[in-house]
Design brief:
The chain has about 150 residues and is α+β, with helices and mostly antiparallel strands. It has 6 helices and 4 strands. The protein has helices at about 5-20, 30-40, 55-65, 70-80, 95-110, 135-150; strands spanning about 45-50, 80-85, 115-120, 125-130.
Length: about 150
Amino acid sequence: MKSFTPIILIALFAAVMFLPGLRRGGITHDGLNAALARADTEDKHVFLAFIGSDWCDWCIKFEREIYRSPVFQGYASSNLVTVMVDFPRGDRGAKTADQRKQDSRLADQFRVRGFPTFFLISAEGETLAKTGYHCGGPEAYIAHIDQLITGAK
């Protein structure tokens, strides 16, 4: 049994290090660092959005129907700090090589496999929920977010 102890400890350490989510100090994304600090100060959650703004139909639909709506913007300003991590294929929002690298690392850290992918994160950096686009407009999406946050408590 003693010979298995180091193997078990190494496996546990590896599992914790590579789980999706955040740990203060392990974040290398400027926008997310700032959002976490602001969420902590304002007692809000972070809404981390991975989108393809100029090629992903569901991302475009989310942005037009939900994200840009005054209803969602009002809710977000009171309850969320939003970080949009965009992976455009065209020249929209041209990014520096460093920004693209940070975005890719963050997507890898969260194991993003499709677009759009959204995460709700506590101000402490704990991933509370992962979700995607849901139809029904801004009111339905707000109810969905509230349900995710309540379910994470």
